[in-house]
Write a structure and sequence with these properties.
Order of helices and strands: EEEEEEHEEEEEHEEHEEE
Low-confidence stretches: none
Number of domains: 2
CATH class of the largest domain: Alpha Beta
Oligomer: single chain
Shape: globular
Mean pLDDT: 96
Largest sheet: 6 strands, antiparallel
Distance between the termini: 27 Å
Number of helices: 3
Structural class: alpha+beta
Radius of gyration: 18 Å
CATH architecture of the largest domain: 3-Layer(aba) Sandwich
Length: about 230
């Protein structure tokens, strides 16, 4: 996924009210950016951290003209924009990087299913059961692990339960965790942060929901899924 407009570099002053981030750009300008991440952003929201923000044209439709994209933490760039992983996974399916999701002739986004929910990607082919793909952004690093979630997510547990129902109905269901960072080699659920999600995840595994994790390479020009990460 190439950035349509090159991000601007700056320093994070503070992230607040979940969706706002004050940033000082290298030019010296002080701006407020939209922070598209509803989680706690543990380890990736420290004041003074280097950040990339993408600028937007002032067309009169946006209140905030910048979006927080990446934060430098532990010496690497970490993607914090939770709207990016859907595009990243779709690209990685099309180019063959995610081998477990090959062999489907159609990819559709945001298809209604379950109880008032939408699946991130629905893969279909006449020769196999439909495949429901739920995508999560994972950025919390603990030792060599990237973990999800970094805060309690009742919505995440709901999605796992609905994916389990799809498996029971004869479909395939897959959760793809996207680690938007290059310094992790393994994935695990952060059961201490959200034990309910962890319980739902284990129950979903037992039913047949599949779990994958893929890591990314991040530069100022693009973010690309480039490797599989072992899931525990």
């Amino acid at each position: 996924m190439k950035f349509s407009i090159p991000p601007l570099h700056g320093k994070l002053i503070k992230r607040y009210k979940r969706f706002l981030a004050d940033v000082q750009l290298d030019s010296g300008a002080l701006i407020t950016a939209h922070c598209p991440n509803s989680g706690a952003m543990l380890g990736v929201s420290d004041p003074g951290s280097s950040v990339y923000v993408t600028p937007h044209p002032d067309d009169g439709k946006r209140k905030l003209l910048y979006t927080l994209e990446c934060v430098k933490a532990d010496g690497v760039w970490v993607g914090v924009n939770t709207f990016r992983p859907n595009t990243l996974v779709e690209e990685a399916i099309v180019n063959g990087t995610i081998k477990e999701l090959q062999g489907y002739t159609s990819i559709r986004r945001e298809v209604r299913y379950g109880v008032n929910s939408r699946i991130d990607l629905l893969l279909t082919d006449v020769s196999k059961p439909d495949c429901y793909v739920e995508i999560k952004n994972a950025h919390l690093k603990r030792e060599q692990y990237v973990q999800f979630p970094d805060s309690v997510t009742a919505r995440g547990a709901k999605h796992l339960n609905e994916l389990s129902m799809m498996v029971k109905s004869g479909a395939r269901a897959v959760v793809v965790y996207v680690a938007q960072r290059s310094d992790v080699s393994q994935f695990s659920v952060a059961s201490d942060i959200d034990p309910v999600y962890a319980k739902s995840e284990q129950e979903a595994r037992n039913i047949g929901v599949e779990f994958l994790c893929y890591g990314c390479c991040i530069t100022r020009e693009e973010i690309v899924i480039d490797r599989s990460i072992k899931v525990f």
